[in-house]
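hi! just following up on the protien thing from before. the input was this:
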Amino acid sequence: MPDNIYVFSGILLAATVTWALRAIPFAMLAPLRNSALLSYLGERMPVGIMCILVVYTLADVNLQSTSEVLPAAIALAVTIGLHFWRHNAIVSIFTGTGVYVLLASA
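and the predicted 3d structure came back as:
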């Protein structure tokens, strides 16, 4: 049976590693808060994500088939309209995805 000091040191080591792994990202984030690069990425990433989703969604759409084009076009219009209206990328992406899934599966 392991001795108490051995068990205690193992628990202390595990707690220290756990605490460090949770604290390090916050410590690294502090100097980056005023970074021009992160500010730029924060402005541009939602548009980049939207473009990637549009290309990914429309890549496999058969343009000859109305049953494939119509759900994609409606979902794209909903996503763009919602994004211009609410200016919230998360809401517009999830709503547009949901509309596409509902229309494509029907």
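The two ends are 63 Å apart (CA to CA).
The chain has a mean pLDDT of 88.
cheers
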